[in-house]
Predict the structure.
Amino acid sequence: STVQTNGLTSWSTSGRGNGTYGYHVQACNVGGCGPWSAVGNTTVLLPPPAPASISVPASSSGSFTVTWAASATATSYTLQQSVNGGGWTTVYSNAANGTTLNEAATGSYTLRVQACNSSGCSAYTASNPVAVTVPPASAPSLSVPASSTNGSYTVSWGGVSGATSYTLQEQVNGGGWTTVQTNGNTSWGTSGRGNGTYGYHVQACNVGGCGPWSAVASTTVLLVPPVPASITVPVTSNGPIAISWAASATATIYGLDQSINGGAWAQVYANSATSTTVTAGSSGSYSFRAYACNASGCNGYATSGAVAVTLPPASAPSLSVPASSNNGSYTVSWGAVSAATSYTLREQVNGGAWTTVQANGNTSWSTSGRSDGTYGYQVQACNGGGCGPWSGVGSISVALVPVPPTNPIMIDTVAPKSESYLGQWDPVGNATRYELMRTDSSFVFYSGTATSYPLGSGPVGYELPYGVELRACNNAGCSAWEYLQLQ
């Protein structure tokens, strides 16, 4: 179409839209117009309009997507961001009309986008602010006690920048994880825990999410073992006291104390068994208490009733036995022994078996009518706890003085030319010799083993001018004199 006819040699236009515009021109006068010029073309490409809209989320934990409306004739888009009202920084330049941003810091992010082509760039279209809250970047430093002896302890951790809360999880004896606290505190206390191993880890959180878990830290709970439920002792003892007590869960060692006659307690046992035997060193009233221990410590006591201990006498009595007796009567005696209530005396005749002859509180024993022989004796001291050792053997030799011989006679024998006298008597069993004595002078004129002896002789009608007496003897002595009767 004709856009200009006049004498000018140029033409200007404006407001043209994108497109290709062709032109040719001819010269004219009153005589007419010459030929058209060759066609000349111009291409109009306007800068693209600003994107009609930009879309962002209201909040983000760091990564979010930005999109905007496409702009006609745009060949690329430039996206800029401003953090907390600061200067603008280009974060994207490409042909797509959207991208994802990964923000490293918490803050208020505003975005603006412009469309561009070879003719230039449009104005910016700005977004509403995006509230970015980045999750905590690091794990809290966790502190857990290594052990607990009472089941009560506190888990604590350091604060982490940007965190508004912390999640603490627990693992019991290697089992599954359980959340035990989620709040802004940096510690957590617990009590009443039983024996076992308790593991913990913690993470820092905010509205943007949670950071990494800390390393696991564990505490071992080993409670002090309970007091043994019972303790058993005898009512009485003569020295050895067998003591036992109930086992206590988790105990690794037991202690046992004793008190004598209500005195101070003293330890007498420390080991892993639940029984022992204590040997009393003296008579008295013994009490015991048992307690259980492990690496965490010891608990209270299980206390026994009293044990009445009576020890047997410790020593033997000092025995006194006469060396000999010539009449079969004698007394055996001994010294008293501390704590003894009775004494047992036993006898051995001629090396035979022992026989008890007395058991009472006396310290002597008398006997009579004993025949010849060797009599051995031992004595021991006794009480309610038993008897002490036997004394050494004390022996006595009984050798009785012989009785007077029986039938002591003087036999008068008359021959045709002489008359003689003969002494004669019955033998005495334990006599070792016999003695004859003249009554007129007390002269012993015979000492021997024969049971007859010639007394004298003379012519017929001879009479023995003196009387004669006889006695039996041995090492113990001699019997009374007996007169020889004339037959």
Remarks:
- The longest strand covers residues 107-117.
- The domain at 319-398 is CATH 2.60.40.10 (Immunoglobulin-like).
- The chain has five domains: 1-133, 142-221, 231-309, 319-398, 409-486.
- The mean pLDDT is 97.
